[in-house]
Amino acid sequence: MTHTPESVKAWLRSYGELIADIDNLCERAEILREKASSPSSPIIDGMPHEKGGHTDRIGNLVSQCDLLEREAANKLQKSRVLYKNINTAIKQIKGSGWAYKKAVLQMRYLDLATWDEVLDMLFMKKPDFLDKEDSYRRRCYKIHKTALEELAEILNQNTERKLQNDET
Fold first, then answer.
1. What is the three-state SS of the chain?
2. Which residues contact 42 (CB under 8 A, 6 or more apart)?
3. Would you say residue 92 lies in a domain?
4. How many domains is the chain built from?
5. 160 occurs within a structural domain
6. What span, in angstroms and rounded, lies between the C-alpha atoms of 42 and 17?
Protein backbone atom coordinates (compact mmCIF):
# COMPACT_ATOMS: atom_id res chain seq x y z
CA MET A 1 0.00 0.00 0.00
CA THR A 2 1.36 3.37 -0.99
CA HIS A 3 0.69 6.20 1.43
CA THR A 4 -0.50 9.50 -0.01
CA PRO A 5 -0.97 12.81 1.80
CA GLU A 6 -4.73 12.19 1.71
CA SER A 7 -4.45 8.67 3.16
CA VAL A 8 -2.08 9.99 5.83
CA LYS A 9 -4.57 12.73 6.69
CA ALA A 10 -7.33 10.12 7.03
CA TRP A 11 -5.08 8.05 9.32
CA LEU A 12 -4.28 11.11 11.44
CA ARG A 13 -7.96 12.08 11.64
CA SER A 14 -8.90 8.58 12.79
CA TYR A 15 -7.42 9.40 16.22
CA GLY A 16 -9.76 12.38 16.68
CA GLU A 17 -12.72 10.33 15.49
CA LEU A 18 -11.84 7.60 17.98
CA ILE A 19 -11.62 10.16 20.80
CA ALA A 20 -15.01 11.62 19.80
CA ASP A 21 -16.50 8.11 19.82
CA ILE A 22 -15.08 7.46 23.30
CA ASP A 23 -16.51 10.77 24.54
CA ASN A 24 -19.92 9.87 23.09
CA LEU A 25 -19.88 6.42 24.71
CA CYS A 26 -18.98 7.94 28.09
CA GLU A 27 -21.70 10.57 27.75
CA ARG A 28 -24.28 7.90 26.89
CA ALA A 29 -23.17 5.84 29.90
CA GLU A 30 -23.51 8.89 32.15
CA ILE A 31 -27.05 9.54 30.88
CA LEU A 32 -28.00 5.91 31.55
CA ARG A 33 -26.44 6.10 35.02
CA GLU A 34 -28.55 9.20 35.78
CA LYS A 35 -31.69 7.44 34.53
CA ALA A 36 -30.94 4.43 36.72
CA SER A 37 -30.48 6.58 39.81
CA SER A 38 -33.60 8.70 39.32
CA PRO A 39 -36.89 7.36 40.63
CA SER A 40 -39.54 6.54 38.08
CA SER A 41 -42.93 8.17 38.26
CA PRO A 42 -45.64 6.13 39.92
CA ILE A 43 -48.32 4.84 37.60
CA ILE A 44 -51.72 5.85 38.93
CA ASP A 45 -54.15 4.41 36.49
CA GLY A 46 -56.05 2.03 38.76
CA MET A 47 -54.82 -1.02 36.84
CA PRO A 48 -52.80 -3.85 38.37
CA HIS A 49 -49.09 -3.80 37.44
CA GLU A 50 -46.36 -6.39 37.65
CA LYS A 51 -44.15 -6.03 40.71
CA GLY A 52 -40.44 -5.64 40.20
CA GLY A 53 -40.72 -3.68 36.96
CA HIS A 54 -38.66 -0.89 38.48
CA THR A 55 -35.86 -3.31 39.37
CA ASP A 56 -35.82 -4.72 35.84
CA ARG A 57 -35.60 -1.19 34.44
CA ILE A 58 -32.69 -0.30 36.71
CA GLY A 59 -30.97 -3.62 35.98
CA ASN A 60 -31.29 -3.07 32.24
CA LEU A 61 -29.97 0.47 32.49
CA VAL A 62 -27.01 -0.61 34.63
CA SER A 63 -26.27 -3.46 32.20
CA GLN A 64 -26.34 -1.09 29.21
CA CYS A 65 -24.16 1.36 31.11
CA ASP A 66 -21.60 -1.38 31.83
CA LEU A 67 -21.51 -2.40 28.17
CA LEU A 68 -20.91 1.19 27.07
CA GLU A 69 -18.17 1.68 29.66
CA ARG A 70 -16.40 -1.54 28.57
CA GLU A 71 -16.61 -0.48 24.93
CA ALA A 72 -15.20 2.94 25.84
CA ALA A 73 -12.36 1.31 27.80
CA ASN A 74 -11.47 -0.93 24.84
CA LYS A 75 -11.49 2.03 22.48
CA LEU A 76 -9.42 4.07 24.92
CA GLN A 77 -6.75 1.38 24.80
CA LYS A 78 -6.86 1.44 20.98
CA SER A 79 -6.59 5.24 21.05
CA ARG A 80 -3.44 5.05 23.19
CA VAL A 81 -1.80 2.71 20.68
CA LEU A 82 -2.89 4.88 17.75
CA TYR A 83 -1.62 8.03 19.51
CA LYS A 84 1.77 6.39 20.08
CA ASN A 85 1.99 5.20 16.46
CA ILE A 86 1.05 8.60 15.06
CA ASN A 87 3.39 10.49 17.37
CA THR A 88 6.26 8.10 16.59
CA ALA A 89 5.73 8.68 12.86
CA ILE A 90 5.51 12.47 13.26
CA LYS A 91 8.74 12.52 15.28
CA GLN A 92 10.56 11.08 12.26
CA ILE A 93 10.09 14.32 10.31
CA LYS A 94 13.47 15.94 9.72
CA GLY A 95 14.93 18.64 7.52
CA SER A 96 14.04 22.24 6.96
CA GLY A 97 11.28 23.55 9.22
CA TRP A 98 10.91 20.25 11.06
CA ALA A 99 9.86 21.90 14.33
CA TYR A 100 6.94 23.72 12.68
CA LYS A 101 5.90 20.62 10.73
CA LYS A 102 5.87 18.45 13.83
CA ALA A 103 4.02 21.07 15.85
CA VAL A 104 1.31 21.53 13.21
CA LEU A 105 0.63 17.80 12.92
CA GLN A 106 0.83 17.11 16.66
CA MET A 107 -1.42 20.02 17.59
CA ARG A 108 -3.93 19.45 14.81
CA TYR A 109 -4.27 15.67 15.03
CA LEU A 110 -3.11 14.63 18.52
CA ASP A 111 -4.10 17.68 20.58
CA LEU A 112 -7.21 18.09 18.38
CA ALA A 113 -6.55 21.83 18.11
CA THR A 114 -8.45 24.13 15.77
CA TRP A 115 -6.61 25.91 12.96
CA ASP A 116 -6.83 29.16 14.93
CA GLU A 117 -5.20 27.50 17.94
CA VAL A 118 -2.40 26.10 15.78
CA LEU A 119 -1.91 29.47 14.12
CA ASP A 120 -1.78 31.30 17.45
CA MET A 121 0.68 28.86 18.96
CA LEU A 122 3.05 29.04 16.01
CA PHE A 123 2.96 32.71 15.12
CA MET A 124 1.20 34.81 17.79
CA LYS A 125 4.52 36.08 19.17
CA LYS A 126 5.60 37.47 15.80
CA PRO A 127 5.54 41.29 15.99
CA ASP A 128 3.60 41.61 12.73
CA PHE A 129 1.15 38.78 13.41
CA LEU A 130 -1.96 40.94 13.69
CA ASP A 131 -1.11 42.87 10.54
CA LYS A 132 -0.28 39.76 8.52
CA GLU A 133 -2.54 37.14 10.06
CA ASP A 134 -3.83 35.97 6.66
CA SER A 135 -0.28 35.53 5.42
CA TYR A 136 0.63 33.51 8.51
CA ARG A 137 -2.53 31.42 8.06
CA ARG A 138 -1.51 30.55 4.49
CA ARG A 139 1.97 29.73 5.78
CA CYS A 140 0.45 27.43 8.40
CA TYR A 141 -1.57 25.58 5.73
CA LYS A 142 1.52 25.27 3.54
CA ILE A 143 3.52 23.83 6.46
CA HIS A 144 0.67 21.37 7.03
CA LYS A 145 0.64 20.31 3.38
CA THR A 146 4.41 19.81 3.32
CA ALA A 147 4.31 17.90 6.60
CA LEU A 148 1.64 15.53 5.23
CA GLU A 149 3.73 14.92 2.11
CA GLU A 150 6.83 14.21 4.17
CA LEU A 151 4.93 11.96 6.56
CA ALA A 152 3.54 9.99 3.60
CA GLU A 153 7.09 9.51 2.33
CA ILE A 154 8.29 8.43 5.79
CA LEU A 155 5.47 5.89 6.08
CA ASN A 156 6.24 4.57 2.59
CA GLN A 157 9.91 4.15 3.53
CA ASN A 158 8.98 2.44 6.80
CA THR A 159 6.66 0.06 4.93
CA GLU A 160 9.37 -0.71 2.38
CA ARG A 161 11.91 -1.41 5.15
CA LYS A 162 9.45 -3.68 6.93
CA LEU A 163 8.79 -5.63 3.73
CA GLN A 164 12.52 -6.03 3.12
CA ASN A 165 13.04 -7.26 6.69
CA ASP A 166 10.16 -9.71 6.34
CA GLU A 167 11.76 -11.18 3.20
CA THR A 168 15.02 -11.97 5.01
1. CCCCHHHHHHHHHHHHHHHHHHHHHHHHHHHHHHHHHCCCCCCCCCCCCCCCHHHHHHHHHHHHHHHHHHHHHHHHHHHHHHHHHHHHHHCCCCCCCHHHHHHHHHHHHHCCCCHHHHHHHHHCCCCCCCCCHHHHHHHHHHHHHHHHHHHHHHHHHHHHHHHHHHHC
2. none
3. yes
4. 1
5. yes
6. 41
Residue 46 inside a domain? The answer is no
Which pLDDT tens digits describe the chain residue by residue (168 residues)?
799 999 999 999 999 999 999 999 999 999 998 888 876 655 566 666 555 555 678 888 889 999 999 999 999 999 999 999 999 999 999 999 999 999 999 999 999 999 999 999 999 999 999 999 999 999 999 999 999 999 999 999 999 988 888 886
Of residues 63, 62, 86, the one with CA closest to residue 8 = 86
**Residue 36 belongs to what domain range?**
5-41+52-167
Q: Is residue 33 part of a domain?
A: yes
